[in-house]
Every structure is written in structure tokens, then in C-alpha cells.
């Protein structure tokens, strides 16, 4: 069941309660110090009008007013410092909670969101919680407090004066009602338009190579500029319609003299109030305008915060793979057994049907099949990026579902088709596999992955910074670095999805040899289109249209498996074509 948004917010704020309590305390002190000049001022004006004041008396009252003003500023500063401290900590917790959730949810769910949407939520939308938190919690409580106390004070002078001071509240409620009527929907549309700009922007940057190659600059830029113009028009339209109503509220609500001035004068003329009471009443009513103004502004902030929390909730409540709270299970070996597995990305769809594969420990298993036959999907299931729909996968005699995430991560090294390198040096990228590796271990891993030669040729060798994109390295070089990373991790199982796709034949041979060496004491599972890479595998699994059609060694399959024969034919024809060209 969806958690109430206020409860979600409270979960994150409760860890910083003490800071907020102190912040509210200083905010209340600040607001009350702000009332003192009005009270003292009314005394001063009465004394001057009735000529009862000495020069010393006037000076004392002026100093008192100044002191109250200085105190108000100091207390406000302390209050907002504390609340900002708390608010930024909460933002930090919220962002960590979202990224943590994304890590624990299945890859399929994460891929459902565009990079723009994820960036927008983690950075921009959570940021919208900061201003209300840092200002609203302390200031709202303090301003409500000051309104209540001022009204009590006015009631003590004369209840009619107090009621007159509050007359603007029901008057301002009418435009406020119209403003708030469809606020939620409008705010959601606004966020949607904002998200659209983010998405198009990220797409434009990520796809810049394709855009330039296909001379799409005009079209793509139009998509980008249309999103920006759409956002501008939506925001302006909304502002224009809301602005009039908002201005009416902003000018009406704080105009407390509307009631107090005529009622106060009438009461004074009727001798129900003396001069000091009248002046005090009018000044207090003026003093009310600031807090009332703040309260009206907070209605906007409150709604903006609500929408931001509702949006982050979508991420905080993503379904997670149940990795939590499991005991570490002892693995008998590094074998993998796929038993009667069925899987589809959607509920009623089948991408893999009735898969049964036995991969003994320390063997080299290749998975081959036509494009779209389900090879990458199968590898991702072995790595538990998704859960199977039925059947099970056993690792070292234990069901994959019963392993903790840490244990799974430590047992499997996974090299994907897109070798992603992070900003930093080559050494840092390889060391991701084992952060405490010695320089010699990094060099050994690079040698095994056949990338040491080209790294040593770079002027800064292992320390070469690849922060400005992977552009300075070829696709094959990037792939070899990611293989080195997986080798250094030294996990008992290595899964590789087309690791040699962009590697030249000479390096491919060397990597092949390295992988075969690795398979002497590791289980290696690899998808490959180039069948020459897997000819010497201990076992080749042939997939066709999501099913295993045969399993065996190269020579046997070539004799007995028509699907493999077709794959081999088309592979050799492609190779001959390459040679003849
Ligand atoms: N994230 C996804 N969501 C939905 N469908 C997907 C997803 N990934 C793959 N598919 C579909 O699953 C099927 C198998 O895809 P998969 O990538 O596993 O095949 P493959 O054999 O590895 O293909 P290739 O050799 O071209 O990489 C395809 O029909 C593909 O469209």
C-alpha cells in the first residue's frame, strides 16, 4: 500500500528532530523579538503625543526597539542555519535512499526510466523539498505562534479589534480556494514538462554521435528547442492565470488595517479604547501582516513539497529483489545449474522457455544463437539482474535467490556488451574489480586481458586519465580494460557477454588463450557471435528462439545440430567475405 506522503517525509525528518526543535525555538524567539518594536513603538508614540516623555525615556525606548531588532536578526540567523543544516542532511538521505533503491531493484525496472527522469528526480525534484523544509518548518510554527499570541493580545485590548484584524482571512480564502482548486494537477503538468526538457536534453547529449553522423542536428535540435519552448509556454500560461489570484491573496491577507483602522477609530471615538490602546492595536495589526503574508506563501511551498515527495515516493517504493537479511550460504563449488527456467520481460511474454543447462565447476561454457535468441537475457538471469518467472538457478548447490547480494557479487564477475568505463585513470577503472589490489596485481590482470601493451605505450601508462569520455581509447581497448577489471576481481565465476566483439583477431586469439587459462580454476560462461572464439569450449549451448536446441562440443554439434550448422555456415561465410574484401 502506498505510504502517505507526509509519513514518508516524517521518516526522513525524524532523524533530524533535535535540529528542527532548536530551529523552531530560535524562530519563535526571533518572531517575538520582532513584535517588541511594535509594542515599544506604540508606547513611544503615545508618550510623544501626550507629551509625557523625557529625552532619556525616549532614548531608552529607541534603544530597546533597536536591541529587539538586532535580537530578531540574530535569532533568525541561528534558526535558519540549523534548519538548513537539517534540510541538506535530509536531501542527502533522500538521494541516498533513491540510489540505494535503484541498486536493489531489478535492472529491468531501472531501465524502464530514462536517464533524464532519474537525474531529474534525484537532483532537481528532491531539491524542491529543501526550501520548504529549511524555511517552512521553523518559520511556519513561529508565524502561527505569533499570529495566535497577537490575536490574544488584541483580544485583551478589545475582542472587536481582534475580530476586525482577522477579517482579511475569510476574504483572502475565496481567491485562495480558486487558486488551490486544480493546483495539484497543474503542478504535476509543470513537473511533467520539466521532465520532458530533461529527457530530451540527456537524449541529445547521449546521442550526439548519431545526431552528427546522420546530419540530424536540425531535427534533434528542434525536438530539444520544442521541449524548452513548450516548458516556457506552459510555465508562463500557468503563472499568468495564477498570478492575478495570487496577487489578490498577497495584497488582501496582510492588509489587516482594512478592519482594524475603522473599527479602532470607532472604538476610540466611542471611548472604548484610550489612545495607547488604539495605537498598540493598530501597530500590532500591522505586525500581523508579515506572518500572515508568510503563511500565504507557505501554501505554495507546502504543495510543491507534497508533489516532490510524491514523485520521490515512486522511486522509494520500487519493488526490490529480496536480497535482504539472508544468511551467508556455503557454496559447494562454482557450478551453475539452470533448471526448467521460463522467463519473459513482461508477465505474459516468453523470451526463454524451459531452459535446462548444467555448467560444471571450472569449465568453459559458450552460449551461441542467432540475434534475439535470448543469449544476453540468459546471462543476466545467471547474474540475477532479473528473477526467473518459474524454475530455478542453482549456484554451487544453492538457489540464486538464497544468496545475499554481496555473496552473489563476490562470486560472479560480469563483463557486459557495452564496456562502461568510469571517469578516472585506467588503473582506477581496473581496480574497481578489487579496490585494495597491489600495482602488480593490476598489471597482471591487464596482461591477462591483453591490454598491458597498449597501456604501457600511453605517456602516462596506468595513470592515463580517461575522464573526458572513453573517446581516446578504441572500442576494443575499452573492452579489454573491462575484461581486466573482471579478471582482477578474482571471482570464481566469470560471465562475459560478447567480450571480443570489437577486438582485432590477433588480440582475440590472445584473450581466448587467457580465458582458457582462466577456466582451469574458474567457471567461464561466454556469449559469442564469432564462433572461432568458442570452438574450444568444454560445452557449447545452442539457443534458438528462446529454447536450448542442443548442447555439446564444437565437432559434435557441427555433425548433429542443424541450428549450429547454420550458425557456423553463416559465420564462415562472413569471415571469408572479410578476407576477400
Ligand atoms: N530489457 C528488455 N525488455 C524487453 N524485451 C527485451 C529486453 N531485452 C531484450 N529483450 C527482448 O528479448 C529477446 C532476447 O533478447 P536478447 O538480448 O537476450 O537476445 P540475444 O540473443 O542476446 O541478442 P543479440 O545477439 O542481438 O544481443 C529479444 O526479443 C529482445 O527484443
Task: Quickly describe the structure.
This protein is α/β, with parallel strands linked by helices. The protein folds into two domains: 5-316, ABC transporter transmembrane region fold (Up-down Bundle); 336-422 and 486-580, P-loop containing nucleotide triphosphate hydrolases (Rossmann fold, 3-Layer(aba) Sandwich), CATH 3.40.50.
Structural class: alpha/beta
Q: Bound compounds, please?
A: adenosine-5'-triphosphate
Number of strands: 10
**CATH homologous superfamily placement of the largest domain:** ABC transporter type 1, transmembrane domain
Question: What is the count of structural domains?
Answer: 2
Helical segment tally? Answer: 21
Q: How far is the N terminus from the C terminus?
A: 62 Å
Q: Work out the helicity level.
A: 55-70%
Tell me, what is the CATH class of the largest domain?
Mainly Alpha
Largest sheet strand order: 6-7-8-3-9-10
Q: Which CATH-level-2 architecture of the largest domain?
A: Up-down Bundle
Please name the CATH topology of the largest domain.
ABC transporter transmembrane region fold
In angstroms, what is the radius of gyration? 35 Å
Shape: elongated
> Sheet bearing the most strands, described?
6 strands, mixed
- Residue stretches low in confidence (pLDDT < 50, at least 5 long) are none
Mean pLDDT: 82
Output the keywords.
65% helix; 21 helices; 581 residues; ABC transporter transmembrane region fold; four-stranded antiparallel β-sheet; elongated; alpha/beta
Describe this structure in words.
This protein is α/β, with parallel strands linked by helices and 581 residues long. The protein folds into two domains: 5-316, ABC transporter transmembrane region fold; 336-422 and 486-580, Rossmann fold. It has 21 helices and ten strands. It has helices at residues 5-13, 17-49, 55-104, 107-112, 115-157, 159-165, 168-181, 183-206, 208-213, 217-252, 257-269, 275-316, 375-382, 405-411, 426-431, 439-448, 452-457, 475-489, 505-518, 554-560, 562-580, and strands at residues 336-343, 352-359, 364-369, 390-395, 398-399, 412-415, 493-497, 523-527, 539-544, 547-552. The strands form two sheets. A six-stranded mixed sheet has the order 6-7-8-3-9-10, with helices on both faces. Helix 7 (168-181) runs antiparallel to helix 10 (217-252). The longest helix has 50 residues, at 55-104. The chain is elongated. The mean pLDDT is 82. It binds adenosine-5'-triphosphate. The chain crosses the membrane at residues 20-40, 56-75, 133-155, 161-180, 249-269, 275-292. One of its GO terms (molecular function) is ATP hydrolysis activity. Keywords: ATP-binding, Cell membrane, Membrane, Nucleotide-binding, Transmembrane, Transmembrane helix, Transport. InterPro entries: AAA+_ATPase, ABC1_TM_dom, ABC1_TM_sf, ABC_transporter-like_ATP-bd, ABC_transporter-like_CS, P-loop_NTPase, Type_1_exporter. Residues 21-304 form the ABC transmembrane type-1 domain.
